[in-house]
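Wed. Picked up where I left off yesterday with Kinase. The coffee machine is broken again, so keeping this brief.
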Amino acid sequence: MSDVPRWLSQIMQEERLPSSFVGNAMGYYVPLAKKIQQWQREKGGVLVVGVNGAQGTGKSTMSKVLATALQEECGCCCAVISIDDIYQTKAVRAELAQQIHPLLATRGVPGTHDTTLGMQVIQDLMAGKLVPVPSFDKASDDRRPESEWTVPSEAVDVILFEGWCIGAVAEPPEALPKAINVLEEKEDADGAWRGFVNERLQSEYVDLFALLDRLVMIKAPDFECVHHWRGEQEDKLRASKASEVGADLSGLMSVEQLERFIMHYERLTRWMFDEMPGRADVLFELSAEHIIESGTGLSS
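Structure written out below (tokens, as returned):
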């Protein structure tokens, strides 16, 4: 790995990534960073790039590599914002669960994010302001206090807005009545929850995603891989938290809890698999081994 840039070796060490990751990074992520630099120059202002990927696809790691490559290889200052970090607080989601539907207590689906906060932060960064970027603690299932948010050190050239449902659009109404898993069948028999989620995608999320200049999708081969990879993420989070003295482990999930949790994401994930690839500016298709098998949209 003598030809691997030092900054990439450092990321791989920090994230405990296998040597096979080099192919993804050097073959696809670094070229994408250079493509993003091109887009930014063409726009002549702050470029907002959406990074979409189902749970466990590696979109957060890719975003970290992209941000570093943009800095080290392209001289661009980049801020990364995760849609996970603008989840509504646990208290707000409890109110949604009481007033609208019990399933809204669980973070994840459209309707459980603070889209107003997300839009404000992105617009402020686009205007050259150095504002705090929100942060969410999944282990405690709540937003961190603003004193723990990160502030960019300088005005940014690129914003990477990453998340599992970034750029998603609403499903056709005729797709909603039929339950697709046990969760929907037993806990959303009348379709009220999934109807609410779809309505949110038709309203406030349209405005949020309208801020995107470009959309990148990293696509899993199927939902079964998503299920497996998300389990690996939880194991990694558990190991990390267990090493912290006095860490709050209350938000970590058992196998059964994780199974139910993933069902919240299934409908929209499957819909994005079908609908999004044809309109993404860049599409990376993963194998079951987490290797990018093909990439489209990088050529001029």
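Quick read: The mean pLDDT is 91.
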